[in-house]
Design brief:
This protein is of the alpha/beta class. The chain is built from six helices and eleven strands. A hairpin with a 2-residue loop joins β10 and β11.
Length: 221
Amino acid sequence: MTDTRSIAGVILAGGGGRRMFPESPVGGDKSFADLASQPMIHHVIGRLAPQVPQVVINANGDPQRFARFGLDVIADAGEVGQGPLSGLLAAMLWAESLSDDITSLATVSTDTPFLPEDLVARLAMASRGGVAIASSFDRLHPVIGLWPLSLRKSLEIALTEGRRSVEKFARLHEAVAVPFAPVTMAGLDVDPFFNANTPKDLARAHALLDRTTSSKEQTNG
């Protein structure tokens, strides 16, 4: 098994949530969308935390709303609204302030409740010290990746120059694409990076979890 003790986990939760909360002119907080009687970020933390020694939440606004999770919360670096790369930069600065033990960051988004339990190990194994990006169903997921802290200066330059695309930044640094197979939930093949980005997506995630729980109960019964 690949050693992941030098990798910290980052949950990127700085998005505006306008598609999840279309009735609101300012969007909302997807992290706290209800999924199986828990905030959606609860499921993400449950998947990511066992894989890394530390997890940090990147979110703007009042950090106290995340207090129940007992994790550090950091706002975007620089100007708010620059996208996930600004959150990644903030996480790099946070990691550098801790110790020399952390050398890379594994990023995930707050709306991916079915993350693979071997995500970080497989990204680390494939990266060979560089950047690795998850993929599934022949599609890249640039926000779900592994990033060496040595890229901080390059990231600062990119943001200063107005280059905000995570995928382009990853390609610039010759990111390796790491394919992940579907996960089986209630007899269905489900994208492990299923993105609950809209109310319809959230309803589907509810249904998948309900059917999976029911199947387990019937099996155990």
